[in-house]
């Protein structure tokens, strides 16, 4: 398994270009199968989760052609199956969007139960609640979930018991061609949900209210192929903003939507960082010691849970004692704290709350990327630590960060990727 080797102490300066949003791309790619002609998706991030989904689409029979690293043309017409059999589908959670998309396309879906980041239980009961409301039945068998509707899917009023991004998007995919009106109440409001709705509406759907907690979907007969460009990645941008602050740097983060970053910018300003917003840029300037602050992760527009490991790492070198409350996921989203402690971080976790005592400095050490965002946090810790840090299992990081080593080197970081021969144990697997 490859690793990153990072020599801490470099101040990040310069400009970084943000890629397309992973969590928008992983819903928009499956959504293409709802179309009755080819789609061209632009500004798609060059990351392994996207490669996995285009592989699955090919496996299903779609014609998939990369016009360049960030533009893919997909013709779903040759697809003759309602089964996502690819073993690879188990590896990423987002493969469950094929359920909603297949239900919208042909009223039937057989998909592997989702995999993805390992931080606690990740149920799909709200997805299933929505599908049943739309007229479907489902069964689980041998790690596969089968969902089908005897007759056409019909509109329904669905009140989500929890604010869930996945269920909001999956129900939208299933409802977009259902007969009549579907109303999703207590819907998630993330920017990637708005992006999916915009994509579907460009194809001819009738979705209103995306980005609010009530989404109304009038079913339509057909959706046509379009060209669509994916929004910038809010979390990738936030990660570089935190890295700039952590190293006392001066970085302009480009190709962003500043509005999507408001909760992150507000926290950094609270910690003493200077933030300057442009039309599609955010400048992060850190010239003074970081101040402590308290963070509570919330559904959008609150502070994103996908920025929790990164901000906790920043707080571990701020002055004073901070509190981080993970209100979206179980406390398993603090598993990375053990890795940070190996670098001298003084953090205690009690259930959903982490108490962070700001340390004078972190010390480089060998650490592991336990999941995508925890891995990004380890990289940030390595950038600020004294000495050298080795981050292992970087394949998790590369699921969601395009060219993270090259982008950091461009900003002045001392980081390189070390190819590691497969350990025998890995072979025994
Ligand atoms: C999406 O996961 C993101 N993944 C996650 O980002 C992100 O952390 C999460 O939304 C919250 O923003 C993708 O978009 C591919 P949820 P998702 O359904 O949809 C509970 C990353 O780093 N819940 O919004 O799986 C659930 O247990 C990844 O890019 C139910 O109870 O998250 C959690 O506590 C990691 N029943 C809460 O809702 C359900 O049916 C939020 O989950 C579904 C969810």
From TrEMBL:
The gene is murA. Belongs to the EPSP synthase family. MurA subfamily. PANTHER family: UDP-N-ACETYLGLUCOSAMINE 1-CARBOXYVINYLTRANSFERASE, UDP-N-ACETYLGLUCOSAMINE 1-CARBOXYVINYLTRANSFERASE 2. Residues 7-408 form the Enolpyruvate transferase domain. Pathway: Cell wall biogenesis; peptidoglycan biosynthesis. It holds the Pfam family EPSP_synthase. UDP-N-acetyl-alpha-D-glucosamine binds at residues 93, 122-126, 306, 328. It catalyses: phosphoenolpyruvate + UDP-N-acetyl-alpha-D-glucosamine = UDP-N-acetyl-3-O-(1-carboxyvinyl)-alpha-D-glucosamine + phosphate. It comes from Neglectibacter timonensis. This is UDP-N-acetylglucosamine 1-carboxyvinyltransferase.
């Amino acid at each position: 398994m490859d690793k990153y080797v990072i020599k801490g102490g470099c101040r990040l300066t310069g400009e970084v270009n943000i890629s397309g949003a992973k969590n928008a791309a992983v819903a928009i790619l499956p959504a293409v199968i709802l179309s009755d002609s080819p789609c061209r998706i632009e500004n798609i991030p060059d990351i392994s989760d996207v490669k996995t989904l285009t592989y699955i689409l090919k496996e299903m029979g779609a014609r998939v052609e990369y016009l360049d690293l960030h533009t893919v043309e997909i013709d779903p017409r040759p697809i003759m199956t309602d089964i996502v059999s690819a073993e690879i589908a188990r590896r990423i959670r987002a493969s469950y969007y094929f359920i909603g998309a297949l239900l919208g396309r042909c009223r039937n879906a057989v998909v592997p139960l989702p995999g993805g980041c390992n931080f606690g239980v990740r149920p799909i009961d709200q997805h299933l609640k929505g599908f049943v409301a739309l007229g479907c039945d489902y069964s689980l068998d041998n790690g596969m979930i089968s969902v089908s509707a005897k007759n056409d899917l019909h509109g329904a009023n669905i009140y989500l018991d929890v604010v869930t991004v996945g269920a909001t998007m999956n129900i939208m995919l299933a409802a977009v061609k259902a007969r009549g009106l579907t109303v999703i109440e207590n819907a998630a409001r993330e920017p990637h949900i708005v992006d999916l709705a915009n994509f579907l509406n460009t194809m001819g759907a009738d979705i209103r209210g995306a980005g609010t907690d009530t989404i109304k979907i009038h079913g339509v007969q057909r959706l046509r192929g379009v060209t669509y460009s994916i929004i910038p990645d809010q979390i990738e941008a936030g990660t570089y903003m935190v890295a700039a602050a952590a190293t006392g740097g001066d970085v302009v983060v480009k190709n962003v939507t500043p509005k999507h970053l408001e909760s992150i910018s507000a926290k950094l300003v609270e910690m003493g960082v200077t933030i300057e917003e442009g039309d599609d840029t955010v400048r992060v300037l850190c010239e003074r010691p970081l101040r402590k602050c308290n963070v509570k992760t919330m559904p959008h527009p609150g502070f994103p849970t996908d920025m929790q490991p990164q901000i906790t790492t920043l707080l571990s070198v701020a002055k004073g004692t901070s509190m981080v409350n993970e209100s979206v996921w179980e406390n398993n989203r603090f598993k990375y704290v053990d890795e940070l402690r190996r670098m001298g971080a003084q953090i205690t976790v009690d259930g959903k709350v982490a108490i962070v005592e700001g340390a004078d400095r972190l010390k480089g050490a060998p650490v592991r990327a336990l999941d995508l965002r925890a891995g990004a946090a380890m990289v940030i810790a390595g950038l600020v630590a004294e000495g050298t840090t080795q981050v292992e299992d970087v394949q998790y990081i590369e699921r969601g960060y395009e060219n993270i080593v090259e982008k950091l080197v461009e900003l002045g970081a001392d980081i390189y990727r070390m190819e590691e021969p497969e350990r025998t144990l890995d072979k025994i697997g």
